[in-house]
Each structure stands twice: as C-alpha cells, then as structure tokens.
Design goal:
The complex is a heterodimer. By secondary structure, chain A is of the alpha/beta class. Chain A folds into four domains: 120 residues, no CATH class; 62 residues, no CATH class; 50 residues, no CATH class; 180 residues, Uracil-DNA glycosylase-like domain (Uracil-DNA Glycosylase, subunit E), CATH 3.40.470. Chain A has a five-stranded mixed β-sheet with strand order 3-4-5-6-7, covered by helices on one side. A five-stranded mixed β-sheet of chain A has the order 9-8-12-14-13, with helices on both faces. Chain B has 15 helices and ten strands. The two termini of chain B are 46 Å apart. The chains are: A alpha/beta, B alpha/beta. At the A-B interface, helix 4, helix 5, helix 6, helix 7 and helix 8 of A face helix 1, strand 1, strand 2, strand 3 and helix 2 of B. Chain B: Keywords: Iron, Iron-sulfur, Metal-binding, S-adenosyl-L-methionine.
Chain lengths: 484, 410
Amino acid sequence: MRHTVRLGGAADFAGWRDAARDLLLGGIPPQEVDWRAGDAGASLLEENTAPPPPVMPPPRVPPAFLELAEAVICHSDPARFGLLYRLIARLQAERHLLSDAMDADVVAARRLEKAVRRDAHKMTAFVRFREAPQAEGARRRFIAWFEPEHHIVAHTAPFFARRFGDMDWMILTPRGSASLTDGTLSVSEEPARKPDLADPTDELWLTYYANIFNPARLKVKAMLSEMPKKYWANLPEAALIPDLIAQTPARVAAMAEQEMRRPPLFHERLQARATAEPTSTAEGLAGLREEARSCTRCPLHCHATQTVFGEGPDRAELMIVGEQPGDHEDLQGRPFVGPAGQVFDEAMRHAGIDRGTAYVTNAVKHFKYELRGKRRLHQSPNSAEVEQCRWWLGQEMALVRPRLVVAMGRTAVLALTGRAQKLADLRGRVQALPAGPAMLATVHPSYLLRLPDARAREQETIRFREDLAAARNWLSAPTSSPAR
Amino acid sequence: MPRSLRERLAILSDAAKYDASCASSGTERRDSSKSGGLGSTEGSGICHAYAPDGRCISLLKVLLTNFCIYDCAYCINRSSSNVERARFTPEEVVWLTLEFYRRNYIEGLFLSSGIIRSSDHTMEEMVRVVRELRTTHGFRGYIHLKSIPEASPALIEEAGLYADRLSINVEMPTDAGLASLAPEKRPQGIRRAMAALRTKIEEASEPTMRTRKRQRFAPAGQSTQMIVGADEANDATILATSGRLYGSYGLRRVYYSGFSPIPDASSRLPPQKPPLMREHRLYQADWLFRFYGFGIEEITAARPDGMLDLDLDPKLAWALAHREDFPVDVNRAAREMLLRVPGFGTKAVAAILATRRHRRIRLEDLGRLRVSLAKVRPFIVTADWTPLTLIDRDDLGALLRPPPEQLTLL
C-alpha cells in the first residue's frame, strides 16, 4: 500500500526529515510515497500515514545534503519533497552522488536550490521598510510588504535580524511573515494581507534613484534581468522607470547640442591663483630629491610607482650604490627596505657600520619589472637606462662628497665607472674613480638571496661582510688613499 | 534661497554617478543582532535596485560637495563647468545614510568629494562623516571611501579604520593622457597613494605580534577606475595598465568607465562616446586575466591595432586564433585548458572535474549544466562527440559571430 506523508507546512524541513528517516528505515522505495504539505491535496480516501516498521539500518547522509535540502524544501514546486526523498534514498548506496554535478536528480535539486537562493537574495534586496508610528520612548518601528515566489520567509528572516538589530520590524508576505520585536525574532507561515504603507522618506529615495541614473548609457535589458517586472509592484522607485526611459533620447540630444559656455568666475580665480603659485625652491640634496620625483629621463617612470631617491645624511664619508629599487622599495619609496635590504642591513651591522651614517642610493632610481601573472619580477636595467640615470648619481656624489663609494653589483660599477666590467676582477680592492672618491666593488646583496646552495650562500655572505668591513677599515685608517 | 536637502541630493548624486563602482562585497562579516547598532555585512554584496542604465545600486553614492578646484576635462564637476554646485554637511550625509539604510534602500555609503581648499581639508571632512557613522551611530553597514591622493598619511590611516574599501582613481590609462586631460593630477602621486594603501592593507591583514588580533584597515581592499575612450589609448594599453595595477597594488578591482557624454562638456573631449560594448569587452578581458589564467598580451595579441573585437568575446577570439590547441577532450584535459574553452565558465569547469570522477562525460551531460552546446561543440571532444574538421573551417569565425542585426522600420 502507498504511504502518504502530511507535513506541518510548506517548508517544514524538520517534519520532512523525520518522515524521510522513518521511510528509509522501513525500506519504502521513493515511488511508493505521496508527500503533502499542510492540508494541500486532502483526499476523502483513506490514507496510510503510519510509519512503516523499521527493517533497515539507520540512514546516513553527508552534511552537504542537509544544506541542499534545507534550501530545496522552500521551493514552491510540489515535487520537491519526492525529489529530495529520491536523492536521500539513492545516497544510501551512492555515497558520492552529490559530487556528480551532471546526474539528473542532482541537477534538478540544484536548480530548485538556485531558484530558492535567488528568491531569498532578491528578498534581502527588494524588501522596502516603511516607518510606522511607535509608542513614546519605544524602538522605531518599520513594516514591509513583499511577495516572494517561494516559501522563503523563515529561511531569510535571520538576515533581517542580523542587519536591523536596533529597530522593531515586520515583513508581511502572502507566504507568511517575520518580525523582530525588542530583539526577539518570530516567524509564521500564516498568509498576511497587504497593508497600507506610506513613508515620506521615499521621496528622497526616488530623488536619488532618478539622479544616479545615467541617461547616456541606457541598458534596459540589463536592468530587467536583475530587477524583473514581477518585483516592481512593491518597489517605490520602479514607478519612475517608464518616464526615465522615455526622456532619455531628449536628454542625450540636449547634452550633445549644448554649446560650450563661459567657465564660471571662480574657475578663472582658481586658474589665476594656480599660475601665481611659486614652484619648489628647496636647494641642495632636498631640492635634488624634489626634482627627481618628476624625472622622465627614461621610460621606466611610467610603470614604476615612484622615484626611489638616495637616503642618508647631506654629507657622508661613505656612500653605498646598489642596482635599482625592487618591489618593496618601489612601494615604500625608500632604498634597500625589501629582502635584499635586510641582507644588507645585517651585513652592515656585522661590519660595524651604522647605516644612518652612510648615504645609500641606487644606480637606477626607478623599479624595472616584468609582469608574470599578478607578480612583478625584477628585470635588470639596460645600459641606456643606466646612462640616463647616471646624471642623478653624479649630482648626489657632488653634494654628498663621500671619500669612499661601495659599488654593489655590476650595474653600480657600470654607473660609477662608465664601463661594463667583470665584478670578479675588481672585487674587494679600493681603487680611485676618475673624479674624486675611491671605489670598492662587491656583490649585490640580492645575489646572495639567489644562491640556491646554502653553503655557498653562507660563504658568500661572509665575503660580502668582509668587503663592507674593509670599507670601514679603509675609512678609519689615518692615511687612506686608493691604489692606482 | 538655500536649497532644500532634496535639491542638494539631486545635484550631489547626479555628480557622483560617473564612478562605476557600487560593489559592497568582500569585506569582513559583521552584524548588529548581538552587539547593537545598525547594519551588517556578509561576504557577498546585495544590489538593492537597478537603474535603467543596468547599473546596480547597492550604496548611497554621493559627493560631499561638487565644488572642485581641479579642472579635469572628463569630469562633470571640473572647475570650468557651469553645473549647479551644492554641498552637504557631514551630519546630513550621516542622516541620509542611516535613514536610507533603515528602509533597506541601500546597504552602505560610497562617499566621494570634489577637492575644496586642500586635499587634507577635503579628506578631513570625509573622515568626519564615516567616524560619526561608525562611532556615534554604531553603523555596521558597508562604507566605500574615496581617498584623496595627496592627503596626509594620518588621515588615510583613520579612513582605513572606518571604511571597508578605499579607492583612488587612476583616471587615465597613461601618464600622458592624464597630463593632457587632468593637468592638476599627478600620476606619481596617485601611484604612491595606491602603494601606501597596499602596504597598510597587507600590514593589517597579518596578525600583530602582541595581540594576534588583526588591526583594522580597509578589509575590502582598494580599487580604482579608468576612463575608456576619452583619450587615444587602445585596449592593449588599457589592459597592460590594469595588469600592472593588479600586480603592483593588489587591487581588488579595476573599473572601466566608458567615457560618457556630460552636460556642459569640455571641448578637449572627443565628440563621440565609445560604444558601450567596448567597456564590456574590457571587463571580459579583465576576468580572463584574473580568473582564467590568461596573460594580458595573450588577450590583446589577436589584432594589430591593439583593440578587442567588439563582435566576439575575447575568449572566443583567442580560441579562433589558436585552433591548434583545440579540440579539448572534456574527459581528460587539465583545468587550465578547460578554462580556455569558449563557453565554459569557472563553475562549469568545476562541475566537469567533479563529474569526471564518476563517469565519462557526454554532450547531454554538458547540456544539463546549461552550457551552450552550440558554442562549445566546435572546441571539445566528449564520449559521444568529436568535432571532425569543424575547428579547421575558415568560416568558423563567421559561424560563431552574432548575425548582423536586422533593422526595422520606425
């Protein structure tokens, strides 16, 4: 004999769950069950509603099924209960059924789930509260009327409780209602009737809606796909739509025909003030730094964030020259603050040099990179870029007047000497530069970071620190003069 | 006679509509059910209404004032425009936000402003609005705040404490374009500001040493906007700039705003607006870059003029130019390659990968996913389908191109 299940309401998930458990325990196949919500489809014939005797082991379902079923049960399709029972019955043998995204039952259930979630989402979007009078000293009260397609009121009510916690509200619908009173949420499946609602603030909302619309880009279809006409009856702003669309051609034509008018008076005052403003007058290193900010000597400035200028005292005995700023330096606008900067700082400490006493800069002042996916990968500057940027380095040297310049890496050597040379030939020796200070060449700290072998890295790090220590010793020796 | 609140709302929302972004997603979860106050945010955003321009309205998007000392040619609020001017007091914006929010018209505020007096003065006024909302009124809804490029770091710091998202518009795809249309704006200043935001956002997203609790700074990140079609830049240039912006500043989104005619327009602007489809194609290309593993150059390499095809979506255009990579076997291909099949979205690809573990996929299975079979058929192999030589047909492009639209008599 067929089994009939009478559920407590249209979206009675707990009732469905209990009935499904009993039926599975009784080994009742899906095709032998009739599901009824509430009093729907009451028949005069005798119905078999008694739970069958248990003959099967307790049923089990994955948590994902419960999440799916809780949504599907809210759908208005009368076949939803049977579909869910068929799925749960199949799940007993086919444990991974839900991950088969193309199974006909799974597809059907997902489709109902999607419709319910969309309807619930539209409810969170399109409910419009109107303020209602409240008692003296009580919380403010708001009432809304909404017409959902599915049985989603209870499902969606907690959203409104989370959002509108400090006011009393009530949402009435033909499929039940929800309300929050003094912080207590209650829901009912009792159909409600449309109340008479009015709120003067709607006027401001309509003003906003009409003015945020851009007539120069009419896209009615795009609007309708997200705000279908079935929702318009309860949206105050929807009443404006036909007129806004109708006026569009005239508004666009008026914009096109409008002649250029004379700018308002305050514009002329502003322009006059702007041209009268003096440009920066800073001198020395500060002036140079200011000037370098807007450097366009080579194309690198277009892609980099900013000029990363040298940093340190106005006068320094020791100047350090690296290659170019990296990712971190580009973002922060300061030299040697990224991973290579940490290696450098560490080495300076070991060599006994206070970084604050040295002037630290780069041969090239803009970051050059190649985009790989969303990552910026360092690229070495080419000789033309080094050549363009040498001018700044020369200015920095002329102002800071160091006695010794430590060139870190080949690019720094190129910038300081004007010649591409092998680092190995120069490394560790103090030598004279054509104009003025002495130079000591060493590796760039990022070279140490790139060494894959840990032992090699350790040895090279020690050598790098020794080079920096040599620079310190040379500076502190009473009669230092570079080897010729 | 002073204007009413409603009149000023009309002016200051009209002035704000050229900012394309209305997103309210991707922030932390908050609600008012236990902690008091008003409002919540929960992952995905809600579009509370749509205007007839197809754009979503999820936020109250207004300017604090449309007075501006800058004269950017593309902007309705430039100082040389004769547009009507108005200003809100910070209290008025607070009131409008809360009252609109309570009626569920919106789920937050997007506040921007013309530059008045100085960057700092303007930023200070804007920060005042959001501070009031958060601290005095316990507002927990979404806040997007435009930050003014040259504003002081302390103000930006405070803005990030209250706002979910901060944004600065790069406005033009190239520095030269900005120099010619927005002479007072400095591209380097804009990039520096975005770099500073990225640094702060990343610092805040790492637990601090002492408390393990995260310090709050713009949890929904930063975004920017580029105007399309107001200067000469082609799509390849625009997308290359986007790629750099994503890579350099960790932006959540780059918005493309097709330059749109404005009342009392400047003569420095082109007389024609770009087709709305161009903006759409740029968004599609942007998606391919962010979610489908395409490189920017791959997307724009197809045409010598560096423009995207207006008739074909960029993925289809790429596939037609790379026929040697097709057909793709749906039952075997790697995820990266499935993502390159025109007609497969990320969800369809996920479903295919899950289903493949159960059985061999047939065409009808794909039909159940609501994938357009007509569109994917030439590019795939399934258990029951091989496209034979379809992929080699010279007229494949013509077959897949939308038919020319039939004109109707008026």
